[in-house]
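Lab notebook, design round three. We kept the backbone fixed and only want residue identities now. Task for the bench partner: fill in a sequence for the structure below.
Input structure tokens:
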């Protein structure tokens, strides 16, 4: 395969990855900003603030993916949003599991170890799960060019 043919063949997959990443970064910024506000000036408890910021970030990510990255894959709706939310909950569980294994299972209890396990390793694994789940279950496209999931 020539370099030009390879670039043409991988262009849809690269666009999908870039779109998914851009939407994810925006959702992360919403989550962080809203959590910071709700926890600080609004004075909410940590779990309440995080639950609300997570819900808002999921909604922003769903809208960004439905209207942008996967706009031609399927019609958005309540079922798709529920699936998207479930995939994101699974991603959050992966992050918590990484943190729990590191902190309680391996005894790595420093702030740095918690950050690396939860926000670096956990986030990386959760992002892979979210990408796969989003494109496989939420925004399925028959005959997708460059599909990694069949």
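Proposed sequence:
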């Amino acid at each position: 395969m020539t370099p030009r043919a390879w670039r043409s063949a991988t262009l849809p997959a690269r666009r999908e990855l870039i779109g998914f990443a851009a939407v994810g970064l925006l959702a992360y910024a919403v989550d962080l900003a809203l959590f910071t506000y709700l926890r600080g000036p609004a004075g909410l408890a940590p779990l309440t603030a995080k639950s609300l910021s997570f819900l808002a970030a999921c909604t922003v990510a769903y809208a960004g993916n439905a209207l942008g990255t996967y706009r031609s894959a399927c019609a958005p709706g309540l079922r798709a949003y529920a699936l998207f939310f479930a995939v994101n909950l699974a991603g959050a569980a992966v992050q918590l599991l990484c943190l729990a294994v590191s902190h309680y299972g391996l005894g790595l209890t420093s702030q740095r170890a918690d950050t690396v396990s939860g926000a670096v390793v956990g986030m990386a694994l959760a992002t892979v799960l979210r990408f796969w789940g989003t494109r496989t279950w939420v925004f399925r496209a028959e005959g997708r060019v460059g599909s990694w999931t069949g």
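Keep this in mind before ordering anything: The chain has a mean pLDDT of 87.
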